[in-house]
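Batch job 17 of 40 flagged for manual review because the log was empty.
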Amino acid sequence: MGEGKGAANLYGFTMKSGSPLYIVDHSDIKGKAKQPKRIIFNLEVDKIDSEVARLKRKKVKVIAPKYHIEGYGYIATFADIDGNYFQLVQVRA
């Protein structure tokens, strides 16, 4: 978005349907996450095994390997470069 004081990075993603997703950094937040479990971002995927393998090849830090929650689906938890947690979730067979 801009440069200098208060400048932010904006990342936009257009979906096949529904609302777009925007991720913006905040000028007041710097450095590693002090409470990485406070907010966990879930990304729903169709094939969790191949997506987990792809992230592992990229050396993304694994917090919890793929596990199953009965009646819900499969989840794998990772950390981004700032230590924030995010999860891949597969709820469909």
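Reviewer: the log was empty due to a logging misconfiguration, but the result itself is present. The domain at 30-90 is CATH 3.10.180.10 (2,3-Dihydroxybiphenyl 1,2-Dioxygenase; domain 1). Unflagging and moving on to job 18.
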